[in-house]
Amino acid sequence: MKKAADEARPLRPRKRTAKVFLDANVLYSAAYLAGSRLGDLWNLSATEMVTSFYAVEEARRNLASDRPEALVRLDALLGAMIIVPEAEDEVLPGSIELDPKDRPILLAAISAMADYLLTGDRAHFGKLYGSRVGRVRILPPADYFKLRRRRGRR
């Protein structure tokens, strides 16, 4: 006679962890203003936050000149992230053209095997919003929050 503990339990589907790469402008904005909506990114379930040393340096440089007191918040946010080096590859896939300062961001997201690249840089990434480059889907942060709500994830 089997004990109840030995009986097979139905498997519940596991939520897949999304790897979300943040551009420098998202880091900057989240750190710039305490309590910013962007800070909610760090509280999302099943989410791994990633950025690159290149993005960190850009955010740090801009905060140092605009709002130095926000550097403490930036460091706290970075403590809960994975920071990856710049990508070795310098060639963007397909016929994608980006400003030279934005290329390292997309290449690092691709190299880190991110699921999403969140950027508020509409001028340079806007034409790529909603599209995928490799496995990376490029979105503004507000669209990522909407996507999460539609999928019932918080």
Layout of helices and strands:
Blueprint: E1 18-22, H1 24-32, E2 47-52, H2 53-66, H3 71-78, E3 82-84, H4 103-111, E4 116-118, H5 122-125, E5 132-133, E6 136-139, H6 141-150
Parallel strand pairs: 1-2, 1-4, 2-3, 4-6
Antiparallel strand pairs: 5-6
- The CATH class is identified as Alpha Beta
Summarize the amount of helix as a percent range.
Answer: 25-40%
Largest sheet: 6 strands, mixed
How many distinct domains?
A: 1
Mean pLDDT: 90
Query: Overall 3D geometry?
Result: globular
| H/E element sequence | EHEHHEHEHEEH
Q: Runs with pLDDT <50, length 5+?
A: none
Radius of gyration: 18 Å
Tally of DSSP helical segments: 6
CATH architecture: 3-Layer(aba) Sandwich
Strand count? 6
Structural class: alpha/beta
Looking at the structure, the CATH topology is: Rossmann fold
How many angstroms does the end-to-end distance come to? 43 Å
Strand arrangement within the widest β-sheet reads 3-2-1-4-6-5
Keywords:
Rossmann fold; about 150 residues; alpha/beta
Describe the protein's architecture and organization.
A six-stranded mixed sheet has the order 3-2-1-4-6-5. The protein has one domain: Rossmann fold (3-Layer(aba) Sandwich), CATH 3.40.50. It has 154 residues and is an alpha/beta fold. The mean pLDDT is 90. Helix 1 (24-32) links the parallel strand 1 (18-22) and strand 2 (47-52). Helix 1 (24-32) crosses helix 2 (53-66) and helix 1 (24-32) packs across helix 3. It contains six helices and six strands. The longest helix is centred in the middle third of the chain and has 14 residues, at 53-66.
